Amino acid sequence: MGRLDGKVALITGAGAGIGRACMQRFAEEGAQVFGVSRTQKKLDEICAELGPVAACKAADLSNEDEAAAAVAAAIAQFGKLDIVVNCAGVGYSWAEVSPHSMDAALTTPPAKWREVIGINLDSMFYVCRAALPHMLAAKAGAIVNVSSILGITGNNDGHAYCAAKGAINAFTKSLCAAYAKDGIRANVLCPGFIETEMIAVTAPVFAEQRLADRIVPMGRRGRPVEMANACLFLASDEASYFNGSIVVADGGVTSRAVPPLD
Predict the structure, then answer these.
(1) Annotated active-site positions, please?
(2) What fold is seen in the domain 8-248?
(3) Does the predicted model carry a pTM greater than 0.85?
């Protein structure tokens, strides 16, 4: 018996990183999985790996119509929708904003701000908005929104990213407040520094082991499968009393205010 036997899960950001790991782990636990990402090639690869329990659709989820079409495609493919895992996200290169200044509020171009907010936050809203009527009709559903520890702590740079992730936390708690009575659970996972393609591209300094040694009490970055396991728990019936929760998985980063100075 798998922990998700008979369930259908829509997973965004499914082509890489945490989303891809969720596709793999959810399928291993018995779910039928529908992956959404911007890149068709990566989706085709993961669907080929998983076989008939998986299907996919390329979409720009920051576009409301494309997000709604992705949800509709998942239901058309598998007949229902039990779980939504929102992993789609983007950061930005520090050098792209300013090679010298950490004052992101002054140096972030408005177009880049809108892009980061659109992909990280708006996409989540559009997917949830499209999925909720189906969950309400079924009087059941589990939503897992992947945020970040930077949505809790803030940062001296990356203000658009931090703002989006902080808004995700508040939005998810609001989903719980509004729809818990209808059998819907909505929870947040806040990862720390994880070994993903995004962190290597957008903030390469955080991908360096020497930084993990200094600021992560466990002395290493997290692995995508570890985050997928947390998402799996939150999506499963094992988490039946988790609702509106913000679950932090960061190797202890947020447990101390000041990292070692040596």
Answers:
(1) 161
(2) Rossmann fold (3.40.50)
(3) yes
